Protein 1
Amino acid sequence: MLDKKMKLLIADDHRLFVEGLRFILLEELHIEIAGFAINGKEAIEKCNKENYDVVLMDINMPLIDGIQATLQIKTLHPQIKIMMVSMLSDLPTINKALNAGADAFILKNTDSGDLLKAFKALSKNEIFISESLAHFFTRDADNSLKTKKEYIQFSENIITPREQSVLKLIVEGYTNQHIADTLFISVKTADTHRKNMLAKLNLSNTASLVKFAIENKLV
Amino acid sequence: MLDKKMKLLIADDHRLFVEGLRFILLEELHIEIAGFAINGKEAIEKCNKENYDVVLMDINMPLIDGIQATLQIKTLHPQIKIMMVSMLSDLPTINKALNAGADAFILKNTDSGDLLKAFKALSKNEIFISESLAHFFTRDADNSLKTKKEYIQFSENIITPREQSVLKLIVEGYTNQHIADTLFISVKTADTHRKNMLAKLNLSNTASLVKFAIENKLV
DNA sequence: CATGCAATACACTAAAAGGTGTATATTTTA
DNA sequence: TAAAATATACACCTTTTAGTGTATTGCATG
């Protein structure tokens, strides 16, 4: 793929960012910016019409987000490489992106060198993860990417379904008593669920639990 | 100011964005990129050392955010123009930025034309707001900017600056004691701030306060 | 079929937060 | 300049959470 130009679709709704990106990639002779999309829906449509080699996909986009778009694009066009770009480095999101089929995950706060490395990796059918995120992962003998054991816990649901129900109510501002009444369990049980979540997430109070829940979209 | 080059400090931790910006502004003969900062603290320090005409300031930055940095820079160097850049278009944030002394507010999803318009406006000592945000505001006879009545309720600080400081720490999971120690106030005062917020927002506990704070981007 | 996880429940103690009310100095603003 | 808002601080009492630990039941998977 290195011998001919990679056709790139940029799917990102931050125009300033995209314009900057254009200038950065202008100098790259083996990359051709072949299209733009300002949301996931448009990205999907364009991939169905045109032939792209790579999609640079923002996670947060209107209408359809980058992860949903990746899923749909990979279903119909598995050969298209998806390079995920995000502001945030939370593991659940990265895992979701990779599970959706993303081939690279870079942060918007990495430098352009990393970006170009990612393109090179993709052209060699490798999976690329920004250095600052790499510590979450490990590679198998077959070079496949695995989330490190110590982080699996984090990404996979440590929070059990029942705990999630409780958590949802906690975020709504319910007290243990109210939660107990709602779920037809004892106050003690509701309290135990809360405490278990605090313990396993290494948090010390409800405020940070609520923050965690919202940030990790567990509610 | 138009006759000589504007010295610009770019304060943003998204390197890809910054690099792109550099390319965009390279073509502008009356703008000179004179420095970079990757957080609010660095921006403040650089403004104390060097003479800049304009700071392009991201809202969300590590250590010290753009709004705090703006406050501090404007206190010591009121002549420096601050151009706020943000991903999000929520009114409380815009108002906070303007109250902190920002001279322009543009979104990262506007095009570079808007960016250049903003620079021009600053050089004429005008306040510039991205078009897509302009509907929140109205101009007085004296051309000063006012939040439209229908938005005031939203924007005007239901939550006072001090309360916001406390709120920020609450969201971080701090207890009243810890908040008191951090802000050098009595536990009672920290507690009063918390209680006042609960009262005026009609909430009954910290969990819902945290939720409110995150949803309304007050943190 | 045993081991582990999930869900349930409880004891006890300490710490924190919630409810209500008061008070005062300072700053903003009408 | 007077009124309003803000930041500060405290009293008293109740409710809720946090910290630590135990325990039983059922279900699933190795």
Protein 2
Amino acid sequence: MDLISIYECLCDRTRLRIVQLLGEGPLCVCHFQEILREPQVKISKHLSYLRTRGLVQCERQGNWMVYSLPAKPARELARNLACLQDCAQEDPVFRRDVARLKKLTPKLAESSPCGCTTAVRA
Amino acid sequence: MDLISIYECLCDRTRLRIVQLLGEGPLCVCHFQEILREPQVKISKHLSYLRTRGLVQCERQGNWMVYSLPAKPARELARNLACLQDCAQEDPVFRRDVARLKKLTPKLAESSPCGCTTAVRA
DNA sequence: CCTGTGCATGCCGATTGACGTATATTCTCT
DNA sequence: AGAGAATATACGTCAATCGGCATGCACAGG
């Protein structure tokens, strides 16, 4: 894993929000849409960007693609994700995103609108 | 200080080497030229890029511009610089750069070729 | 087999970034 | 004032990126 690639991935606001959210657990694209309030194509492309550089993994689950951070991230990545987690604590946008996620989680637990309850189990 | 700006600054190899070197202490442009073996204009532009985003400071010293990391970096910056310092330990390019710097330092201490011995005092 | 849903990709235009060449700026020394 | 050294900037070029629109692909259910 290249340090440059990591920084390239993190230097976009949307990608940063995505990665930050994935720190809370796996998510599928429709969740990102709802939480970030961004169009599907934008999210999808950023996820693709992250995927080709190894910052996220994905797994198909029926109709849905469930994205997550790598199970065993490289040292540099793990270090930087921890750093990001720490730095983002104070950012209002990140806090709002996570708040939306928390609000979404129980709803999905009982009746998932998109079938990926497992994605939010974490 | 914006997280995005920090990551934008760090997502270029040359800038990463510059920042990494500044972790060892202030340096002037000619030192970067010698250590990085890159043309003056390239280094100067990247320094300018870093300066406008607040990642480095500079101070004129006669004919020379002495660059350094900010005296009191913002929390996010300090955190990320520490992270970088840690991640870069293993990178052969960074190690070589620092080795060149160490080799340069004593030479400058006795007879500085460009007058900025003070820059390497640290 | 057909349809709908979730997601990805191709194409376009606009912006930004990286690099090089040439030139300007700022200072020192004489 | 003039020359030279260290550094910065202007301009052009090429590549990468970002966003949107339209379309393609994969799967589920009837």
